[in-house]
Amino acid sequence: MKIGIVLYPTFGGSGVVATELGKALAVKGHQVHFITYSQPVRLGSFRENIYYHEVQVSDYPLFEYQPYETQLASKIVDVVKYEGLDILHVHYAIPHASAAFMAQQILQTQGISIPFITTLHGTDITLVGKDPSFEPVITFCLNASDAVTAVSESLKKDTYAHFATTRDIHVVPNFIQAKDEVPVMNFEKRRHYAMDHERILCHISNFRAVKRVEDVVRIFNEVQKTIPAKLIMGGDGPERPFVERLARELGVCSKIIFTGKVRDTAPILQISDLFLLPSETESFGLAALEAMAEGVPVISSNTGGIPEVNKNEFSGYLSNVGDVDDMSKNALKVLSSDENLKKFRTQALVQAHQFSITAILPMYEDLYDEVLKSHAVKS
Ligand code: GMT
């Protein structure tokens, strides 16, 4: 099958999922064409069955805001026509679904019929989607897509709650290539950041307000009062200055390592004992799944789709949003002894296997087949 994937190429979870999906489809023999404005961070280059088509964004002085959606639609038309794509899969509703719809209509006038699937990732629905100025376009796109998927039951529910759509939404969770066994801790690497008797806690995100990054520092502050510990903060974003200021106020700066943006989360996770994800909302929580897949238990909030991923008292613990006290107590419970930590590490990996790519990839492939079949009947 020839599949066009439209995505955000940046560090966000939707781009990571779309990129990893395309890479896995390519390995299975599908021809995958990525369409976006810059090389996706996790794509790499020159791989069998993978093609990348860059959308050139013009810089005319006339436009105060460049019309990216129009240029994206034109690029989609071009790639579908000249590469002979069978299906389009767009990740994130805005503006990808509306650009795909426009491309579909243009192609129709040229005698080419192509279906498109929209995958909702979360903030397109829960945050951005709630902005009334986007509502008519998103509702229209949900109804115009040939199929819609959401990354969790929670996101599916939110979509029905916020948008006037009754169409069927398929839940296809985020996925991971989980290790077979809990990886052996690499103490040589770990010693660059912590002494052997110290625990390492970590957090990785884009440091946006929704991640409640200050809670990460507050939890760490409580934990390090009881047990020797370090905190690795992976990523960067708008909240970082506030987090750094808080760390200075609490006097824990020397125990926190800010790495800046990270392309690959594994090196941080492979030396960590515990992952913190106290988000305000999270449609799924890919970062938590990536941690669990490396055998790192998770202390998280119990919001959105996180409870579908992190199982309380098994792969970690869940608390109410903002309940720093409870999250700190739970972190200390996991880290209380080597035996307990080992138990949670094993359980985290067991839970991650529920979302193994081998189980999730066929869900997308089956959907592509189903959509192509009913599209052929319609056209
Ligand atoms: O979490 C982010 O800020 C990035 C965001 C995105 O849109 O790329 O991630 C969303 O999609 C991921 C992949 O499906 C989910 O795992 C994240 O939970 C979701 N983020 C939120 O809902 C806040």
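qc> The chain has two domains: 2-175+357-378, 187-355.
qc> done
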